[in-house]
Amino acid sequence: MGWYILKRLIAGILSMIVLITVAFFMMHAMPGDPFSVDDNKKVDPAVLDRLRDKYGLTKPIGEQYLDYWGLLLRGDLGISLKPEKQDQTVNSIIAETFPLSAQIGAYAVILSLIVGIPLGILSALRRGKATDLSIMAFATIGISVPTFVIAILLMWLFSSRLGMQISHWEYDFQHYILPVVCLSLGPIAYIARQTRSSMLEALEQDYIRTARAKGVQEWKVIVKHALKNALTPVITYLGPLVAGLLTGSFIIENTFSVPGIGKYFVESVTGRDYSMIMGIVVFFGAFVVVCNLLSDILLAIIDPRVKLDR
Amino acid sequence: MRLLDVKNLRTIFHIGVGNVDAVRGISFHVDKGEFLGIVGESGSGKSVTMLSVMGLLPEYASREADQILFDGTELTALTPRQMRGVQGKEIGMVFQDPMTSLNPLYTVGQQIEEPLRIHLGLKKAEARQRALELLDRVEIPDPKTRLKQYPHELSGGMRQRVMIAIAIACEPKMIIADEPTTALDVTIQAQILELLDHLKKNSGSSVVMITHDLGVIASMCTRIIVMYGGLICEEGSAREIFYRPKHPYTWGLLNSVPQIELHKHKKLIPIPGTPPDMISPPAGCPFAPRCRHCMQICRMMPPPETVLPDGHRVFCHLMHPNAPKVEREVNA
Amino acid sequence: MQYADTDLRSMRYEDLPASVFGPAEKRDDTEQIARPSLTYWHDVWRRFRKNKLAMIGLGFILIMTIACILVPMLSVYSYDGMDYTSMNAAPSWKHLCGADFMGRDLFIRIMYGARISLTIGLVAAAINMVIGVTVGGVSGYCGGYTDIVIMRIVDILSSLPSLLYILLIMLLLGKSLTSVIIALCFTSWTGTARVVRNEVLRLKQSEYVLAARLAGARTPHLLLRHLVPNAMGPIIVSTAFMIPNAIFSEAFLAFLGIGIELPKASWGTLANGGIKDMASYPHLVIFPIIAICLTMFSFNFIGDGLRDALDPRLKH
After folding, report:
1. What SS3 state is found at B57?
2. Residue C7 CA to chain centroid, in angstroms?
3. C124 in helix, strand or coil?
4. pLDDT digit string (tens) for chain A, length 310 residues
5. Separation of CA A110 from chain center
6. Is the pTM of this model over 0.90?
7. CA-nearest residue of chain C to A290?
8. Hey, is the C-beta of C30 within 8 angstroms of any chain B C-beta?
9. A36-40, B11-15, C306-310: range with highest mean pLDDT
10. What domains can be seen in chain A, in order of their start residue?
11. B window 256-315, beta carbon within 8 A of A
């Protein structure tokens, strides 16, 4: 177990190094820099050059890259390059915006699990019946309809039909519910489909017949013997899901004016805010690596065969 | 004394293309303390028969029977809940493939303890103690370690021993072994058979052994039922079946058993053709298309039961007084 | 003497005449197979055809493909032709789906959008398949260090949300159809590569490939003759699901405003453009959304249908 975790951890760190390198050079290969975007056309070029100097953008790229690693290893993600952010550190921006994204994401993860898994089980147990067909119809809609379409529809319904104010963010139930529902619909659909099919597969296994031959109660056959086996693919999906939802969905945060980290990322990407982009890439990357690792460990705890397979 | 008495059992699988008549109205019994063998090739309905008795059919199958009387209880009248009191407690079952029949996510111990806790209401510690004894009884070395291991850490033979331990956990009156050795190495096969025989002799419970291999049961079975196409062909004591078989299918089976008596230079005689399509089974005797003694009547109606004086039952038109006298061709 | 079945049934068994116990005429039905056996692909097609939703999906995509090719060629409107007299016009016979804030006909813009979306979907899926199959096949077939190195790269690429890469690549390459496709293909092939590698590994160990090798089959021959057709099922399925994913991702990028350059518009751009005035002119959002949703449904139905048809064991 310890070896397994260590191996996965090293693989995770390796992929982080690759990601950071690729992202860094890719970003610097982009035409223009944070100070040559349209808004700055009226500003005196000399001022812009001073700014470039101040943030070290005039140094050779290799040196900038090494400098960045120097910062990173000290746990510092740098300073935002946007003048309007007034030299805020990337760390503090993340600290400010991530909790809200994480909170909404966590609610969405919980919602997707507590709705998706039971729906999938129900669907599997009522295979071919009306319940199954309607759940699967819902799941197909959930998978096929893009998130932003759901967002648009919900927004249209709640703001122009029910007169709700969505254009600015408030920390109340009303404002949480829409992004959470929006974020979880896709995962609910996916989890329900996955649970259903792996549940059906599990129910056909020989060991289910063995359990029945032992005289195990039906609900125990379903929960203890079938579900536990059926959940392994769902757990594999859990890592990327948690990572994706907790780090905020760009679209959802944009649409519902959530001041979360996703919204910041899009803003900084379009604004060429180098350190902000790098900061978020590093943060996201690390987060995803950790989430995947956790879900792999969880899988190894549930399924004793996993340890041997790698 | 009869332990199990089945009358006119019919099992139908409702699958997409049509209905499969897997078992087509058979009657048989199992005596107390006997070792019964049910022989037939795949698709003959031998496994389905016992699964029907156990109430372990998949949901797309339906079972009808005039009677399934087990130790004084009419099983057809039981609710699924009551049936669970029989499954694992009164009847234990060992399945064909020990690789897939154990739940990969639970330890061997947990799986053996499960029926003990359900049926005997044992506490965790007691169940663990019993499980240890059971592993010992099925001759697994170092049971303490094995108890904590997962199925994938055991060999095929070990797993089958665990399956047997589960089946005998609650001291059942009957053990059904569905091709328990088919998936195992030949050397392991003999060990498992020996173990089953040994357990049966010690406990006095009945064993029903389902197999496609006559050789497997030759030495242990007291009685043998030969099945083909969802029907019984012939039933009798092991001695009768091996030395005085009456049904051409049984002849075929006996002639296709390899024997290691090299000096005799016996030739294997395979049965030509393939088993019948059970979606639209032939109207008459199911074996008629492959039978070298097939008569006109065989294609028209299924043969009725002929009981010989020693209780030997045969379902073959050749037993009719008007039928030609045919002798079994022996491989020479 | 010939007896009818009914005569015999009414008779007691003991009284059956000796004549029916004569040998039956030889019938060569022992080896007959009851149902016609089909080749694998015939069978797949037969199962696929039975799936109504998948057929509807296929029909819709075909109609959409033909329409998006023909309609812009035949229509009087063009995607950037402005008509100030019909700004934000509601749907009518003149403008089937209405017109946008610059008076551009929405129907024709949706048809152009279909060209973009379908092109992106198909091209991305094709590239994805080629890269995925090649990489996965090489990795699985060669094994050893090649396999380890390739799978590490795949692990690294797929361990991070593809959106990060896509956004960065879009910024690097600028807004255009090509850069969207490159961005979408950058990481998506990893899934296919994994599937193919696992299939190849599985097949390499399978007994019939071993048998073919023992029979003296050469390596490339073996690969083409056995591995490829057998790995085809999973490859087709993952490709089929790649199409809606690519369309979805493009719509998503367009919605964020980093898709292809204006005034050309994909469905995502159209939906995003209409969102500001959604309250007053809902048709500007609704029609593009309908187009996206129907297409996504169709491709997902086709994907589901293919999966069920290719591997009936998975069908539940």
Report:
1. coil
2. 61
3. helix
4. 677 778 878 877 887 888 788 878 877 777 666 666 555 556 677 777 777 777 777 778 888 888 888 888 887 877 777 666 667 788 888 888 888 888 888 999 999 999 999 999 999 998 888 999 899 889 888 888 888 788 888 877 777 666 666 667 777 777 788 889 888 998 999 999 889 988 988 998 899 999 999 989 989 999 999 999 888 888 888 877 887 777 667 778 877 878 888 777 777 777 777 778 788 878 888 887 888 888 888 888 888 877 644 4
5. 14
6. no
7. C159
8. yes
9. B11-15
10. 2-85 (no CATH), 97-302 (1.10.3720.10)
11. none
Mutate to test the interface with C, among A20, A21, A138, A143 (most CBs of C within 10 A): A143
Alpha-carbon distance of A241 to A99, in angstroms, equals: 17
Nearest to C16 among B289, B299, B320 (CB): B320
Amino acid identity for residue C271 in this structure: A
C12-32 pLDDT, tens digit per residue, is: 777 777 777 777 766 655 444
Cβ of C31 and B274 within 8 Å?
A: yes
A128 at B interface, C-beta within 8 A: no
**Residue A292 forms contact with C (CB below 8 Å):** yes
Best of C250, C299, C316 to disrupt the A interface (most A CBs within 10 Å) is: C316
Nearest-by-Cβ selection for B289 from C18, C22, C29: C29
Q: Hey, is the C-beta of C28 within 8 angstroms of any chain B C-beta?
A: no
Chains that touch A (3 or more CB pairs under 8 A): B, C
CA distance B30 to B1: 9
Taking CA–CA distances from B325, the nearest residue in chain C reads C21
With an 8 Å Cβ cutoff, is A50 touching chain B?
Answer: no
* Residue B87 DSSP code: B
B63-77, B317-331, C24-38, C179-193: which has the minimum mean pLDDT? Answer: C24-38
- Chain A CB contacts of C293 under 8 Å are 144-146, 149
* Optimal mutation site among A1, A212, A214, interface B, most CBs of chain B within 10 A: A214
Task: Please give the residue of chain B at the shortest CA–CA distance from A227.
Answer: B105
Give partners of B (≥3 CB pairs < 8 A).
Answer: A, C
Question: C38 pLDDT exceeds 70?
Answer: no
Write down the pLDDT at residue B65: 92
Secondary structure of C8-70 in the HEC alphabet? Answer: HHHCCHHHCCHHHHCECCCCCCCCCCCCCCCCHHHHHHHHHHHCHHHHHHHHHHHHHHHHHHH
The span from the CA of C155 to the CA of A291, in Å, is 14
Closest to A160 (Cβ–Cβ): which among C252, C271, C279? C279
Give me the domains of chain B, ranges plus CATH numbers: 2-90+172-319 (3.40.50.300)
Distance from CA of residue C56 to its chain's centroid?
A: 14
Nearest chain B Cα to C5, which residue? Answer: B300
Cβ of residue A205 closer than 8 Å to a chain B Cβ: yes
Tell me the CA distances in angstroms from B167 to A236, B33, B112, B138, B163, one per residue in order. Answer: 34, 16, 9, 11, 6
- Interacting residues of B68 by C-beta distance below 8 A, sequence separation 6+: B4, B5, B6, B7, B9, B53, B74, B75, B76
- The domains found in chain C, sorted by start residue, are 54-314 (1.10.3720.10)
The residues near A259 (Cβ < 8 Å, ≥ 6 apart) are A97, A100, A169, A253
pLDDT confidence of residue C31: 46
Contact (CB<8Å) B56/A304: no
